[in-house]
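User: Structure with manganese (II) ion, tokens only please.
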Amino acid sequence: MHRDQKYYQLADYIRKNKKFVLISHVHTDGDALGSMIAFYYYLVQNDKKCAIVVPGRIPPKYEFLNTSGLVNRSTDSETKRFIADADVIVIFDISSMDRLEQWYEPVKSSQAYKVCMDHHPLYPEFTDLDIIDDTCVATGELVFQFLEKVKADISFEMAEALYTAILSDSGSFRFQQTSKETFRIASRLTELGVDPAQMYSRVFEKNHRHQLKAWGNLLINLKSEDEISWLVVSREFMREHNLRAEDLEGIIDIMRKDGGSSVFAVFTEKEENLTLVGLRSKNSINVGRIAREFGGGGHFHAAGFSSSGRLEQVVGETLDRIRSYMMRLGDVA
Ligand SMILES: [Mn+2]
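Assistant:
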């Protein structure tokens, strides 16, 4: 089905139905929240009933989008009922359905029409309509295109939400998938009143002083070898510096400043047998593929996974895999 036809199909679901659930992934981010919140306002403009649900907590820096007023407003049992009774469930930015966590089963077993809007390569599971384009830098681009296609009245709140989505997932218009379409949309949103400098500050300048000092301590111990750079963050370190996993968001972008490396990894020990792995690539190493091999997901140049192995073991296995990919590329060249 052509993209426009998909947008019209989605518009048709909206026209014919009343109860909507918008849902996204655990470790929620600016793209997921911004996309859902813009879509929420559109549904409300059209007199729909709508709940926004994300598994896990919401980083407080996104409160300027009124996350506490709009997201996870119900108890778990009410949410379960909303999901079961929904006419349409729209799943945003999910990358892999198991990132719905505790809502995976309820969503899967709901009788609702299920729509997925995503910019990750994704093998659709149980959905009725997939609007997926892995050339987009953010899911927010797809939401904007849809709103444009249906001639929605994009309010200032919607514009700020969509700008947040695109700004955060593009790393402030720097990452590989940033395109002329990205700038066209950003330009439209700016015309609608969004202030780019203020948005940058809200999304990227909200780190705390203790967090920056902890980053310093970590970066001193940056390891580099054969174009691979990596950081290992133990639970003790996290505890000692009073850090949450989300406080390390962005440190990998600092590591990228090393022009001598092309693949980057951050290993964060969240629990005794739970390590989060973030991966970035600046060359032809497809870290999305590596992440999928370990049960995660993501893009060619940015991906991640979690592993139940011990920290050192996960570090060893991941680096081995990256090295073997780099060796294979070397063979081809
Ligand atoms: Mn995204």
